[in-house]
Task: structure prediction
Amino acid sequence: MSYVVQIWDNPVNKPFPVSIDAALQLLETLQSCQLSEFNPKFIALAERLKQRYPDMDSVPFDEDGDDDFDLSELAWTDSPLNGKTFDAVYGLGLNLNDLFDEVRPFVMQEAAELGLCVMDEQAGEVYLPDGNVLRMPGKTTPASSTIKQPTNEEVLDIVFERLAPLMLEHGYTAYKNKHLFKQIHPESWCEIMLWSPGCYGLPLFAELGIVTTLRCHAISDLICEHAYPDKSLEDVAKMSTLSLNSDKWIEGTDEFEVGGMGGRYYIKRFEQIDAVVAQLTMKLQAYLLPALAQYKTLSSFEYHFNTLEEASSLFEIGKFGYGMVKIIAAYLAGNPGLEALCEGFYQWAQEQTGRYQHNGAPEILRCIDYVRSHPRPTTQNK
Result:
């Protein structure tokens, strides 16, 4: 989570503001202005700040490319920290960590020595170069402990505990150490896992993703055996399962944001977790759990991938999506449309091979070769 202060060089023809309202009005005017060149005071401030607290670009890296210390320990969310901006107001992001309580006053001190003004809207304070501090009534200077953001692990633990009763009620087994809920059927299994992508760079928020994985044993076993003949079962186990990302069913609200690949919740404050859990509970009960209950048997998988309209499916199937699953499911279920399905994918795969090396075309061709060379009785789809 970032904590931003606004820094400006007071115009020479204007006195320092005498109230918070006056400072806000001045800031609004300055924020609409562009400088013709970089303000040397901003650059000097950045250099002073960086000398004591390095930015991300100043972190030493070893020969293997691993950083020598945790980037979350840095003082700044900005990098490179150089003060080079054509804006008349310089926004500086402070990282909310154990350094915050010493970094914040250091910024105010160094800015004042350079004749710069600083507004901290979170605290309702304006620090002026003459030593005066303007304060909004009722506001107090924050400490990092009072605005601590949750970590990824804290979010995972809290959300898992809140969702566990609902998932147990629907027949799922909870695996707390993996943040995983699993339901096993004779012909298949389903997993719903809470996950976090980890932190790359500075942690501005905790991230929570939800990945649903389905496996029909008969379909997956045959795909593993014939689509990937040169690989071990362990190597191809994940390739033969079906993953459903949460971007199809989660959505942002006024309380929190979502984004990222696969659809993730962005959580900046502990109090946002309640709203996230409320939406997750509603979406699970109204949409995901009833939909997953339809994927238990070979025949149900075959129906959902080869007959059901995509608008009603959990998966974004498309005409040529999930080719191996469609072909093997139709083959095992005795679908009379198998040959037409194979021919369509055969033509598609022939066009793709050579143009794209990792789009699944070679594996689809192997599945087609297998089902054509091992005919089974067909039955009328129900």
Notes: The chain is about 35% helix and 15% strand.
